[in-house]
Design goal:
CATH topology of the largest domain: Peroxisomal Thiolase, Chain A, domain 1
Keywords: Transferase
Distance between the termini: 22 Å
Pfam families: Chal_sti_synt_C, Chal_sti_synt_N
Strand content: 25-35%
Largest sheet: 9 strands, mixed
GO biological process, one term: polyketide biosynthetic process
Family: Belongs to the thiolase-like superfamily. Chalcone/stilbene synthases family.
InterPro entries: Chalcone/stilbene_synt_C, Chalcone/stilbene_synt_N, Polyketide_synthase_type-III, Thiolase-like
């Protein structure tokens, strides 16, 4: 079987209405967390200025909604966002929907059957023989294993593929509680859809040159995303950055060693901005400069943490970077994933 290089040739994104961080606090969360003394300090320290929400808590309070109602709203809101992101990525790559051989969708914030993969494929006009893949409930790092899967398909089948990450975290605002991890989650998380096109042997774009994963099961309770009767609830330990600090150097070292590269050779760093401390740890452990963290800081400030879509947004910030790019994301497990992208 002939194996082709898997090359990222197009990208697209769709963002719902912008939500100002201070306005969200003043209009809803100050009341939601009244009496939690550390809440405002956590809110202000999240590194977020604006983000995006299909359900603005200032206008509508979903905290008492059941999970079924939230899932129905997810389908309603995700379809137009996903369609816009995928159409933009295909246009950027110069492909038609009928050219796609595999359509993969990553999400951890909403579910329905038939899913987004089937509904969007039909709406966009993808072929009836299309292969589909749903990457579900992996959390913030799902874009990288999703990219690895579509990259393997493209390399083995010599057919183009599309990966869509669509996350609507605003649908999972929780009832008022005193736990500080809930304040952190509500201060950070945001909504977005982002998509990439991967083509076989393309003469332009970035080649997927390697993927490395590491899971530390001894810290599985540090980050959780539980399905409850009132939507999905985040569990987030303050020890997450410490765990990342133990593993990120080895993961990046393994990734770069496979290509004969060093940290100094990397031109762009697309680090998932799980929060300011996460970015600080990656910077310090890898010996990076604050300038090298700039794209991730900007995405956090302007868009918040959009779960699996976020690292694709950071990659779009680095579209003009000439040279090797490393994409990294982190999530439940605790799990670290990293991908190396090389210019064609």
């Amino acid at each position: 079987m002939r194996v082709s290089a898997a090359v990222l040739t197009g990208a697209g994104a769709a963002l719902p209405a912008t939500l100002d961080q201070d306005a969200a606090w003043d209009g809803f969360f100050a009341r939601h967390y009244a009496g939690v003394r550390a809440a405002r300090r956590i809110w202000d320290g999240a590194g977020v200025r604006t983000r995006h929400a299909v359900a603005n808590p200032v206008d509508e309070d979903l905290s008492g909604w059941g999970t079924g109602a939230r899932m129905a709203r997810y389908v309603q809101e995700a379809l137009p966002l996903g369609k816009q992101a995928v159409a933009g990525a295909l246009d950027d790559a110069g492909l038609a929907p009928g050219d796609v051989g595999l359509f993969a969708v990553a999400t951890c914030t909403g579910y329905a059957t038939p899913g987004l993969d089937i509904r969007l494929a039909s709406d966009l006009g993808m072929p009836p023989g299309l292969q589909r893949l749903l990457v579900g409930h992996m959390g913030c790092y799902a874009a990288v294993p999703g990219l690895a899967a579509v990259g393997d398909f493209v390399a083995a089948r010599s057919r183009p593929a599309v990966l869509l990450c669509c996350e609507l975290t605003s649908l999972h605002v929780q009832p008022a509680q005193r736990e500080l991890d809930q304040v952190v989650a509500h201060a950070l998380f945001s909504d977005a859809a982002a998509a990439v096109v991967v083509e076989p042997g393309a003469g332009r774009g970035r080649r997927l040159a390697g993927v490395v994963a590491r899971t530390d099961p001894s810290t599985a309770d540090h980050m959780t995303w539980d399905v409850t009767d009132l939507g999905f609830r985040m569990g987030l330990s303050p020890r997450v950055p410490d765990v990342l600090s133990r593993h990120v150097g080895d993961v990046v070292g393994e990734l770069l060693d496979g290509a004969g590269l060093r940290v100094e050779d990397v031109a762009g760093w697309a680090v998932h901005p799980g929060g300011p401390r996460i970015l600080d740890v990656v910077r310090d452990e890898l010996g990076l400069t604050e300038q090298q963290m700039g794209a991730s800081r900007r995405v956090l400030a302007e868009h918040g943490n959009c779960s699996s879509a976020t690292v694709l947004l950071v990659l779009q910030e680095l579209a003009d970077v000439d040279g090797p790019v490393v994409a990294m994301a982190f999530g439940p497990g605790l799990t670290l994933y990293a991908a190396l992208l090389l210019p064609v």
